[in-house]
What we know:
Blueprint: H1 2-20, E1 50-55, E2 60-68, E3 71-79, E4 85-90, E5 99-104, E6 113-119, E7 127-129, E8 142-146, E9 149-157, E10 164-169, E11 188-194, E12 201-206, H2 210-238, H3 244-279, H4 285-306, H5 316-344, H6 349-380
Antiparallel strand pairs: 1-2, 2-3, 3-9, 4-5, 4-10, 5-6, 6-7, 8-9, 10-11, 11-12
Helix pairs in contact: 1-5, 1-6, 2-3, 2-5, 2-6, 3-4, 4-5, 5-6
Amino acid sequence: MGMNLYSSVSFILFTVIGLQCLPLTIQQTTETCSSTLPLNDLTFNSSLLQCVEAWTPQNYILRYARTVENTWSFILSAPDSSVFVGIGFSTDGHMIGSSAVVGWLPPNGGRGEAKQYFLGGQSPSQVMPDQGDLVIVNGSLKIESMSSRLYMSFQLTVEMPRKSILYAKGPAGFFPSSPGFRLREHQSMTTTTINYVTGSQRVVKGSSHSMLRKIHGLMNMFGWGIQIIIGAIVARHMRQTTAYFYGYLLYYSHIAIQTTGFLLGLIGIICGLFLENQTNANNVSTHKALGITILVMGVLQVLALLGQPDKESKYRKYWNWYHHNIGRVMIILTIFNIFYGIHLGKAGTSWSVGYGSAVGVLALVAIVLEVRNFLNNITRF
């Protein structure tokens, strides 16, 4: 009993220490089209600007107007979350072949940069700085930070801008630097069409990889990272009950929960492999290796269930040792790998805090059950 309590408390302490490493959530200032524009040094009349909430999930706001004949003025605002922001103009709604304006402002107080890029392909080497077919008015392109938001302004010499507009949000903490000013793959993006006269907008599509990335994360989080932990808690509590029917019910609940978790996790890993192939990611080798290790452990647990000896068998204690300890190691690796995956995917603190909160609740439940069982055992003796 003492050893089991020690193992449970050790696991819970590991979880609590891991949660302490979570970054604090940074609240971003939101903006709407009714908000007052805080810029004062514009070279054109801001009262002429029309406004559209361009990308609602990311709180991108686009203001625009024809301020001079054949000259269009644009101001794109977005939360200042240590990323680059981009707006592209496409002839066919696709990224490849379009030209974009990209800006960033490093959080260390460095000078903001904004450049035109030609999006010649999906790889960073095909995205060319200081190239493209947008005719930007000299001296009009700049980016600045006000009230925790980025404001990127520029003017285009064109009779009518292209109606297909792409918006992109860069990976957290990355900023292009000299001499190449190369971009990395965006964290997320969306494509819209706009009617410049009425200000109406229609979302065409989001990032081709964003949905697959979310499915990969959610399936692994709910499968390996939550269901498997719940199943382990049920199994632990099942061993403490003396009621035959209750123990029987918990036993099959444990099997059902673990099987569901395994299948969800398997889907998540398959999505991850597809995602790696589509994005040609070169920084996920450790994350992938841990995921495959967790999958192998899950398969071993399933095989162990099929080969479970009777309670009276002399091999049962070895089977228990194997089954329980493989499960504990798998849970520890899973929690670490999920947080590591959130970090690699630049998903933001909301994912870390959300999953950390779920693990914290499960840890609290485990503590309560352990204390209750400990007190019950003392009472019996």
